[in-house]
Amino acid sequence: MEETTKAQGASVYEASAxxxxxTDERPRGPHNIQNHAVEFDASIRAAEDDAAAAERAxxxxxxxxxxxxxxxxxxxxxxxxxEETHDPDHLRPVADAFRRHLAAKEATVGRALExxxxxxxxxxxxxxxxxQLLALLDGAIASPIPEGVRSLTVGGVLAxxxxxxxxxxxxxxxxxxxELPVSQSDRLxxxxxx
Length: 194
Hints:
mainly alpha; flat
């Protein structure tokens, strides 16, 4: 009976040679943990890229151009926030990219949609917010802000700017998709990217 108990215990507590043990699948040591973290981060980025590609496939023409431009502005903002830099020289590329984004949007989407009564309020509100944020960003670059307050001021402006780009995708892109025919949207996309 003792042998039976040992045999049963062996099958319960000891892994057979054919099956990997649970501990073989677990990362051991800092190197393996770091490798798993890198793999996990890469899989998350790949999933986010796939989701973004699927989302872009739902849209056409100038909506895609607008979202691409907004993503570029978002990426510049995120880079500054990661580096925690508030120097005016580092803010200028964001201001320039945002200024180009607003100008291209105004020349294409703004001009095409402002005459449509259902879209005009959204376009007007978007334009006003964009101009206001650009003025705040230019002010953060040009005005001498005390160093202790500068990081909060610049961080707040960058966060508002990033939120504006996200709201643009949420509020303006659906209006573009609803109001503009595909042929006009495609033509405007070519103008937007110039």
